[in-house]
Amino acid sequence: YAFYIYKGQAEARLGNAAAAERLINWGRLMEKLKENPKDAAAKMAMGEILLKEERLVEGLKQLSEAAALLPDHTGVRWRLCRLYQREGNIDEAEKYIHEIAGLEPGNDDVQYRLADFYRRHKHSDQAIEVYKKMIDNKPRDPKPYSLLGETLLDLGNFEEGQKMKDLALTLEGGLKHNPDHQETVRFMKYLF
Asked: pTM of the prediction?
């Protein structure tokens, strides 16, 4: 490990600051992991360095080990989820997004990301269920109505999709001057 630190110092003397910093950080992290192989922060940092060097398999291994050491840490799970999505490993990505949703069940941002994940990976029925649960939890929030409407429109359900989009606009106050507003208000009274 000292080799990386000495090599980094040599690079610094040659004026290559970026390479020097990378090598010195690499050496320090390797020392930390040698002293404490269960140092989750060092594993996360090492994983990020490996990913920057395009050593994906090793980087994912370090981040996965960090996630196992930090069962309540959502940050490393988000990172893993995005990496697995980028690599096309949707099953692994889905595993991590479900872990996050389990750790933060009341977090709206997590629910929106979960539904977005489903939409992007052609699981529209699951996305619709997430949006409906969000509407049940916060019936006066326009965002889940709007996203549900977009999902329904994408599926070709134009009538229901447009109703949801109109409901979202009504909740935001955007349909006050629309001639169809009264029909939308009647529909909302039925829902609430």
From this structure: 0.66
